[in-house]
Each structure stands twice: as C-alpha cells, then as structure tokens.
Amino acid sequence: MISPALRILIVDDEKPNLVVLSNLLKTEAQITLASNGKAAIEKAQELKPDIILLDVVMPDQNGFEVIKQLKACEITRAIPVIFITALGDVASEETGFELGACDYISKPFHLGIVKARVKLHLTIARQCIMLEMLANVDPLTTIPNRRKFDEQLEAEWLIAQRNQQPLVLAMVDVDKFKQYNDHYGHAAGDKVLTQVAQALNKQLQRPRDFVARYGGEEFVIIIGDSDLSGAKAVLDNCRQAIEDLDIEHELSTHNKITISAGAIICTPNNGVTSVQALKQADTMLYQAKECGRNQVCWNE
Ligand SMILES: Nc1nc2c(ncn2[C@@H]2O[C@H](COP(=O)(O)OP(=O)(O)OP(=O)(O)O)[C@@H](O)[C@H]2O)c(=O)[nH]1
Question: Which residue positions does 4-aspartylphosphate occur at (predicted)?
Fold first, then answer.
C-alpha cells in the first residue's frame, strides 16, 4: 500500500528513465517528476519530499550543482539525495558522497537493486520523522514539548536580538488544577490538559506564534512578531478561549477551567538573557494567581 506521507522526487532529463523509475517506485511512495535542475529545486522546496533520486548528467544544471543548492537551502538541506547516474567512475561517486548524497547508483541500473536501496532510505527517512516527533512533541497533548520550546526560544531570541524587535513570552498555568485532579480524577485531568493545549494552539496560528507544554499543567507561549497591543489581544483571546471551553470545575472560584498567565515583552539585548526573561514571565504568572486567577499579568 502507498504511504501517503512519503514522497519521492525523481529528477532525470530522459523521459524513459522517469517512466521506468516512477513505475518501479509508485507502490512505495507518491512520485513527483522533474526533468531539469531548476524544476527539481523548485519542486523540492515546494513539496519537501522524503527522498530525491537525482541524475547527474543533465543539460543546464547538472546533478552536482543541484545538490549543492539543495544542501545550501534551509528547507531542503535535510532531504536525502540518491544519485542515479551514468557516471560510474569512482571519482564521480566520491564527489557525490562528498556533496552530501546518501547513496550512489550507477546506470545501467538493476531495477531490483534500485527498489531495495530506495526502500532502505525510505525506512530510514520514516524513522527520522518518528524520532524527530518523539524528541519534540508532548505525547499527551501533541503540541511541542519543552525541548522544542528551548530550541525555538533560542532561535526567536537571536532573530529579535538581530532585528532589535520585541519578543513576547508568556507562562500559562491551569488554575486550581490539583483540585480538579483530586475531584474529577487524573484521566479527566489529562483530557483537560489536551483540550487546553489544543485551544491555545488554535489561537496561536501566525508563523512566529508558538506554544509548548512546559511541564505538568504549565504551558509557554512565544509571540515573535507583534507589538504590545497585538500580543495583549492574542493572550486575552487565549484566556477567553479556555473559559469558552466551558469545562466544569466545581472547586474553582469561576466554576470552570480557567488559566492564568504571566507575560513579558522585551527586546533582547546584551544585558538580558532568555532565562531571565522567562523568570520574569513566571513572576508575573505568580502575580496573576495572587490577583484572583483567570487573567494575564504583564511586565511591560
Ligand atoms: N492529570 C494530570 N495532572 C497533572 C499532570 N502533570 C501535572 N499534573 C498535576 O497538576 C497539579 C498542579 O497543581 P499545583 O501546582 O498545586 O497548582 P494548582 O492546583 O493548579 O493551583 P494554582 O496553580 O495555584 O491555581 C498537580 O496536582 C499535578 O499532579 C498530567 O500530566 N496530568
């Protein structure tokens, strides 16, 4: 059966080769074809295939030039490339590997061997996707975990520092969650955490918005491209979205599940670290709890 998640991009300037290879591999993955280097790069960036089968000898741009561009581009850098080429000499093969190919198959190729090698690399690609997910996603809520947050914060901090743009960080905590667990049970608590995570995620859909589960009943938000009034509106929408879930919580003042948040807007400079900024957001979260919960407190 075809796995819809897997895609192979086959690049060859000779149509008969494209036909043979796509017929051979169409049961393994979805196939996209390109007959020159320029189209290959465009399709690789657009589709982000799991594997690229790349011919070397092509007019205009040869396969070695194409792989250099693929490896230089952030979007396509990690895509495994298998050369499939008439250049069977050892020096060309060595060049192919030096440029970052994961395999090198000489023409005339044997169909069974091509299929076996592609299947092997698809298995590795699948395992990489799985590992990436296990490393970065919180299994209960399916949103990014703290490890991914640390990475994202570092990246956003650098961008904000470079552009001298403000960055918003918020620590979010479910109110009276211990009581909820004690009263409704741990399984019900788990369900609430999932619903809260999904509701926050829905509110944070712009490219540089980010939400992760920080641990336990705590979430953390980064808003990378906003001014204070915009970020205030976003975080209040988050708070309101949780109230609107309307999940009964008899032991809470508000009779339903709510969240508190502590937020900080800062422009990273040499004097402030992201760790200090996060700590300030946590202090504001404490203040939000002290002031009655179900609110966002800001350190402007
Ligand atoms: N169901 C469930 N509970 C969790 C999970 N992780 C942490 N918790 C619980 O979350 C609760 C957090 O409680 P506290 O930190 O005391 O805070 P709180 O009851 O939310 O009170 P306030 O923060 O003051 O509003 C603890 O009872 C933890 O056991 C989880 O994955 N699932």
Answer: 55
Question: What are the domain boundaries of the chain?
Answer: 7-134, 146-298
Superfamily of domain 7-134: Response regulator (3.40.50.2300)
User: The complex's ipTM?
Assistant: 0.95
Q: For residue 192, how far is its CA from the centre of ligand 1 (angstroms)? A: 11
Q: Scan for tokens 């369900």, then name that residue.
A: 191
Tokens of 59: 């007019």
Question: Closest Cα to atom 7, ligand 1: which residue?
Answer: 216
Is residue 108 reached through a cis peptide bond, with omega within 30 degrees of 0 on the bond before it? yes
Q: How many degrees, rounded to 5, is the angle at CA 225 between CA 219 and CA 227? A: 95
Note the pLDDT tens digit of each residue in 213-253: 999 999 999 999 888 999 999 999 999 999 999 999 999 99
Confirm if 201 and 247 have CB atoms less than 8 A apart: no
> Ligand 1 atom closest to Cα of 173?
23
